[in-house]
Design a protein that fits this description.
The chain contains 13 helices and 14 strands. It is an alpha/beta fold and 371 residues long. A ten-stranded mixed sheet has the order 2-1-3-12-11-4-5-10-8-9, with helices on both faces. A two-stranded antiparallel sheet has the order 6-7. A two-stranded parallel ribbon has the order 13-14. The longest helix is centred in the first third of the chain and has 19 residues. The protein is globular, with a radius of gyration of 21 Å. The two termini are 13 Å apart. The structure holds 3-isopropylmalic acid and manganese (II) ion. The site of manganese (II) ion has 2 residues, from helix 10.
Length: 371
């Protein structure tokens, strides 16, 4: 398997280093045939190569089976040094999603009961732990619709952006959500929409009923997106699978990171029919870059998702998840999870990575292979 590694900007290289340590360990312990190829991507690539997603990177990604990507982007002020149409969020991330048509974005939101003190929510609200997955449509809607900027006849600047979906785009992501829900214990979907205002949600909901009729065991709850934002704070344990269009998913997945204590705990998978890529849900955090304090959980978690979803290495993925959770349950966390609370020690990016590696080193890897 050839994996294109795009470390990205800001904290990207630091957290990617920890993720690559995990991959190296698995190559050694399990004789995995994984070849890693680094490629420039993001603001750094723009300054070095004139484009945040340069041709050389496109070629490497085209020739790879899987892409592992770190966060990209600069802070608000620095971003202004790059023309809007070449800023890495648009010209690299959205372009990557479009190139490989990675339409289904899986964002697991997990905090075991033993880790629940890392959530800012009251213990009574999250006592049973948080364990749901948010499925976000990733290549349609407002982010990819037609855009116009101009000046009208009275000299007023205006902008138009359109929210576009066709039936096929909606159906394929909903099918992924129902398939997933049908395999989970609770078999439940929350459909997040805004059909009281948006016509796009009316079509979305129509198709949801059609797709849902093929999955009689999956129960569907419909929830308006604004109400869903409240429900995530008041009763997050009710959720199992949430599904929604692109922008709703962008916003609510960041909120989900908040309720588990940090966006640093949000890995993700961006799945297409032919190719998938894996990335943290968060940005490049330029303010803390290079300080060895960023949380590598989301990047290492993205490796776990890659192992299970694109490589069929379920046993190995389970061990990586278990190691991540054990480190946190033992009380070791990076600074994003706040001041040291009772029995908690703040560790550096590298120390967190080492704790994960120590646990993985002790696993008895002589067990059967998963593929
Ligand atoms: C995310 C990010 C991206 C998005 C940005 C950086 C383009 O916020 O993956 O959630 O909006 O999708
Ligand atoms: Mn986002």
């Amino acid at each position: 398997m050839k994996v294109a590694v795009l470390s990205g900007d800001g904290i990207g290289p630091e957290i990617m280093t920890q993720a690559l340590r995990v991959i190296d360990l698995l190559i050694e312990k399990r004789q995995m045939e994984i070849e890693v190829v680094n490629a420039p991507f993001g603001a750094g690539a723009y300054f070095d190569h004139g484009h945040p997603f340069p041709d050389i990177t496109k070629k490497i990604c085209d020739e790879s089976d899987i892409i592992l990507k770190g966060p990209v982007g600069l802070n608000h002020q620095e971003s202004k040094k790059i023309p809007v149409e070449l800023q890495p969020e648009r010209a690299a991330i959205l372009a990557l999603r479009q190139r490989y048509d990675t339409f289904a974005n899986f964002r697991p939101v997990f905090l075991s009961p033993k880790m629940s003190h890392f959530s800012p929510l009251k213990p009574s609200v999250i006592s049973s732990g948080i364990d749901f997955i948010l499925i976000r449509e990733l290549v349609g809607g407002l982010y990819f619709g037609k855009k116009t900027r101009g000046e009208d006849s009275r000299g007023q600047r205006f902008v138009e952006e359109s929210l576009e979906y066709d039936e096929k785009q909606i159906r394929r992501v909903l099918t992924i959500a129902f398939e997933l829900a049908s395999k989970r214990k609770r078999q439940q979907i929350h459909n997040v929409h805004k059909s009281n205002v948006l016509l796009s949600s009316v079509l979305w909901n129509e198709i949801l009923e059609e797709v849902g009729s093929d999955y009689p065991n999956v129960s569907v709850k419909n929830m308006l997106v604004d109400a869903a934002a409240t429900a995530l704070c008041l009763d997050p344990c009710q959720f199992d699978v949430m599904v929604m269009e692109n922008m709703f998913g962008d916003i609510l997945s960041d909120q989900a990171g908040g309720i588990i204590g940090s966006l640093g705990l949000m890995p993700s998978a961006c799945v297409g029919e032919k190719k998938s890529y894996f990335e943290p849900s968060h940005g490049s955090a330029p303010d803390i870059a290079g300080k060895n304090i960023a949380n590598p959980y989301s990047m290492i978690g993205s490796v776990a998702m890659m192992l299970e979803m694109s490589m069929n290495y379920q046993i190995e993925a389970n061990e990586v998840w278990a190691a991540l959770h054990t480190v946190m349950e033992q009380g070791y966390v990076t600074a994003d999870l706040g001041e040291a609370i009772n029995n908690t020690t703040i560790v550096s990016t590298e120390e967190f990575g080492s704790k994960v590696i120590d646990i993985l080193e002790k696993v008895d890897w002589s067990m059967g292979r998963s593929n």
